[in-house]
Amino acid sequence: LHMGKTMKEDLTVIVKYIIQLYPPEFNVFGIYAELYHNYFASQAKKSAESHLEDKDIYLLLSWVHNIYPKDMRKDHALAKELDKVKLGSLLPSSLSKELEKKYLDSEEVTVKNSLSRCLDKEIQRWKEDKEPEKLNGYFQSELLGIFVIQSIYSGQKRAQDISQAVGEELSQRLLKELPAFLRSYRDAFEDFKDKSKKHRYYKPILIANINNCWNFR
């Protein structure tokens, strides 16, 4: 953040006040921009090659695909001059792809585990002596009907915020996780139906789960 802010502010000063002090052939802006970019890229590469936590990988990818090329280099005061310089990406393509794979693998596992925990909590609720919650007057499971969908949607949105390609790749992966989750949910529900007919709230629990189907569709 400090490097990005410094680069943006300094290049803005160069555009506004420094360029006109030198002959065009000196290419003052281009030289400064390349020096800043090369240093920024070297630090990004150094970070990418070190051990990064998942949140750090996400932040670095956000800089590479989003913040740096869009928020910084498309800034209205800098875009015209920067378009002449052709600075390239903050990271080599191979390193960027490696980070993307780590991020996608991690995000896929995170969502998968989140869905599994959600189902475990729901199954535990069925065993409790409690009536299911009502939403708009109908029995429904807010945990399943809302949390699962939000988990998948949030994962997709985070990935899309990095880049469209990363978002599409994660969407494909999660589209495989959802049917697997739904099969586990169906099997658990069938087991409850067979073994818990004497449950005090058997019928409301059945209704709540049937009402979830519309949300999942």
From TrEMBL:
<dbReference type="GO" id="GO:0000145">
    <property type="term" value="C:exocyst"/>
</dbReference>
<dbReference type="Pfam" id="PF06046">
    <property type="entry name" value="Sec6"/>
</dbReference>
<dbReference type="GO" id="GO:0006887">
    <property type="term" value="P:exocytosis"/>
</dbReference>
<dbReference type="GO" id="GO:0000149">
    <property type="term" value="F:SNARE binding"/>
</dbReference>
<dbReference type="GO" id="GO:0051601">
    <property type="term" value="P:exocyst localization"/>
</dbReference>
<dbReference type="InterPro" id="IPR010326">
    <property type="entry name" value="EXOC3/Sec6"/>
</dbReference>
<protein>
    <submittedName>
        <fullName>TNAP2 protein</fullName>
    </submittedName>
</protein>
